[in-house]
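Work Package 3 committed the consortium to producing structural models of liganded targets before the mid-term review. Because experimental data for this complex are still outstanding, the team generated a predictive model from sequence and the ligand definition alone, so that downstream docking and mutagenesis planning could proceed in parallel. The input record is reproduced below exactly as it was submitted to the modelling pipeline, together with the SMILES string for zinc ion.
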Amino acid sequence: MSTKPNKLFTCEVCGEKFGRNKLKKHRKEKHPQPGPLILISKRGARVNERMPCDACKNHHNLLWRYSESTKGTVHICSVCKPKIINRSFPKLDALNFAQTGGGFESKRSKH
Ligand SMILES: [Zn+2]
Ligand SMILES: [Zn+2]
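The resulting structure, written out as tokens with the ligand in place, is given here.
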């Protein structure tokens, strides 16, 4: 048989085969990427109800509900909360402080 110029790629999720461009489209439509959960607003409400955390999928008795995130309304446990908050609102100030400085070192040439 003749070799096809278009190489087919297998979708890892459903096993179907597609051309490179079609696979990308297929994945987007059929298997939307989870992507990182990022909070848009820090405003969260405590939820005293046993339900799975949207980040770690474990059940917890105490969660926080955030209505503004990249995934709509989410419930986050106290374990995931600090991680997601750090990711959503990176402390840029601290980074800038670490990068500045270094100009204090005076170069003294000793003979
Ligand atoms: Zn698929
Ligand atoms: Zn969690």
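Reviewers should note the following from the model. The first strand starts at residue 8 and ends at 10. These observations will guide the Year 2 experiments.
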